[in-house]
Amino acid sequence: MSNLDLRPTPTTCGGEAETGPVRELLTGRSVKLGESTEVRRLLPNLGRRMVGAWCFVDHYGPDDIADEPGMQVPPHPHLGLQTVSWLHEGEVLHRDSLGSLQTVRPYELGLMTSGRAISHSEESPREHARLLHGAQLWVALPEAHRHTAPTFEHHAALPTVTAPGLHATVIMGTLDGATSPGTAHTPLVGADLALREGTQTRLPLEPGFEYAVLAMTGSVDVDGVRVEPGALLYLGCGRRELPLRALSDSSVMLLGGEPFEEKIVMWWNFIARTDEDIRQAREEWMTGTRFGEVHGYDGDRLAAPEVPQLPLKPRGRVR
């Protein structure tokens, strides 16, 4: 998925490193995506820029698109990151410059690793379901892997963890001994947790990870904080378990990972390490080199916005 902001600001990724648990409730800002999809952007946020290597989180829907085209995101580039597509309702047709053509459906993992360069488009199929609801996330690639060859993975079957009133699907990384087949380049976890109303449970966590919970549907009490759909609760580090109480039939996404210590620059759809990296990537996208071509999308590709005149400075987690 693309950041379609025509005036993107350089994002200082990383924030103050907490040494223990916190409860920081973040609300998203509304952003127009493509022709008809509006998303709630939760990361980067004024109060929190990363959770482990997770550096970008959009939550959208549920939207009634029965009489609309739905998601229509033209071909655009990515650099230095992974995109994670996750749906609760609807379908998204993915095309990329590797020649991939894949319809991603609810509770299936669409994972694209941009590595050194890739471009892709995302759209609702012409014949699509009435509702569209999901999340789009980015993972920053560490220095050792950010120049890797681009790849696309589709995993229709994912491991699960169950307990009374809880059904967890492991999207990325490992949760309670269950490991996703999706390729991860840093220690992290992403999971979708479905909870029946009245369920009270404690989820095992890694104390060295920092965590956040994104509410997708329903209402959940997360360690004493009520979290409603479209909000993100940042939880900090140092936790061995997470108390959850479902106030209704609910679903949340658990995101976590080792704090990402590298200094990075995130601008538009690129994650790099220097100002020069960003400017070169933009130039190569505009001139049609490096990022390849997406075939089959009915429309023009996105033009890159202008890079700010002032140099973009890499920043770390600690201000």
Number of domains: 1
Number of strands: 26
- Which value, in Å, is the CA radius of gyration? 19 Å
| Biggest β-sheet strands, sense, barrel | 8 strands, antiparallel
What's the number of helices?
Answer: 1
Task: Compute the separation of the termini in Å.
Answer: 28 Å
Mean pLDDT: 92
In the CATH hierarchy, what is the class? Mainly Beta
Structural class estimated from helices and strands: mainly beta
Provide the β-strand percentage band: over 45%
What's the CATH H-level superfamily name?
Jelly Rolls
Report low-confidence residues grouped into runs of 5 or more.
11-17
Order of helices and strands: EEEEEEEEEEEEEEEEEEEEEEEEEEH
Give the overall silhouette.
Answer: globular
Corresponding CATH architecture:
Sandwich
Helix content: under 10%
Topology diagram in text:
Elements: E1 11-12, E2 21-27, E3 29-33, E4 37-43, E5 54-64, E6 72-78, E7 81-89, E8 92-96, E9 101-104, E10 109-113, E11 118-123, E12 131-140, E13 151-155, E14 160-163, E15 166-175, E16 178-179, E17 188-195, E18 200-204, E19 210-217, E20 220-222, E21 225-227, E22 231-236, E23 241-246, E24 250-257, E25 265-267, E26 270-272, H1 275-286
Antiparallel strand pairs: 1-25, 2-22, 3-4, 4-5, 5-12, 6-11, 7-10, 7-12, 8-9, 8-11, 10-13, 14-15, 15-16, 15-17, 17-24, 18-23, 19-22, 19-24, 20-21, 20-23, 25-26
Family: Belongs to the pirin family.
InterPro entries: Pirin, Pirin_C_dom, Pirin_N_dom, RmlC-like_jellyroll, RmlC_Cupin_sf
Protein name: Pirin family protein
